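Q: How do we represent a protein-ligand complex in a form that can be generated token by token?
A: Start from the inputs.
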Amino acid sequence: MKILGSERIIYDNFKEEFQKPFQNFKFSRKYFYSSGRGAIKNVAYFLKKNGYKIFFPDYYCVEMLKPLKEENVKIEFYKILPDFKADLKFLKKVKKEKIALYIVDYFGFQDENLIKSSKESGILTVRDITHSFLSNFDFSSSDIVLGSLRKLFPVVDGGILFTNLKNFEMIKKNCKEDFYIKKLFSKLYREICENYKYKSDHFENLYLYYSIKGEESIGYTPKNISKFSLNLLKIYDFENASTKRKNNFNYLLLDPYISKKAIFKSLPKDVVPQSFPIKIKCRDIVKRELQKYKIFLPILWRGENEISKKILNIPIDEEYSKKDLSTVVDKIKKVSGEKDEC
Ligand SMILES: Cc1ncc(COP(=O)(O)O)c(C=O)c1O
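Then emit the structure tokens for the protein with pyridoxal-5'-phosphate bound:
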């Protein structure tokens, strides 16, 4: 029987069905996971079982590789060039049989040549839409489309996978209903520290503690997304978030200093960007200096590829105003020096 009275609950019982952009993905199967790596791990099972080896881009986050390595999927790398397009030479030596290709839509943009060429070569494609979920692309040419939902959207946990493959076996483990609670705690403590301006090392330490513990509980064993995050996604205003992201990107492009350093010098109509990547000399020093102003610009990612040493990402999520972005730009200029020629 339903409990009546007692403590009031957090109301997350939202009834709406998924709106755009979920409807943009025209696949017969859609699976939710607790993380993007959960979806990758499920793909790793599939590749292993069917004897595939995978070509992976050499600009990546190490966490993405773990599930594939754990399943002993054979990995070969292909080169990502400084404009974030693939060097297509590797496709010539790729034979059709039992080869999969992992494609990442970096920062929300797509590499049309890579997508077209991979389609022509008939290999199995796995497209990572973690950054491009909101972009208006035709994803249908890929065999498997997957991503993390936690990079673009303010959810506690979440990953997704779409496919039409009839022999794709969905594997998810059961888990405790409250596996996401520590991550939720960390977000609440951050809220207390930042939005309510409650300055206390105690809360900041709790935020950091629960953040690490929360990640551990979300993990990457394939399991279901929490009902809490699913409900948040049902009410999230994707339209508004997309418009804000595009406006923020275009606002940054207006600054000649930033525009000169931009990897992408214009914003195509169909792209909803994840962030604004710039190429900057002495990147690690600049990043460190910015922290003194409480500006924490992410690095996506540290890796073997030469470009990874120079890329810094300016966040353009919907909660940032033009004023916030101007502050970031001013501080970047201040710490990197107007003469940075990178
Ligand atoms: C492009 C990309 N794909 C997948 C993942 C994995 O996502 P999650 O952290 O939700 O497991 C990440 C994050 O590391 C990522 O950056």
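The first strand starts at residue 29 and ends at 33. The CA atoms of residues 132 and 253 lie 19 Å apart.
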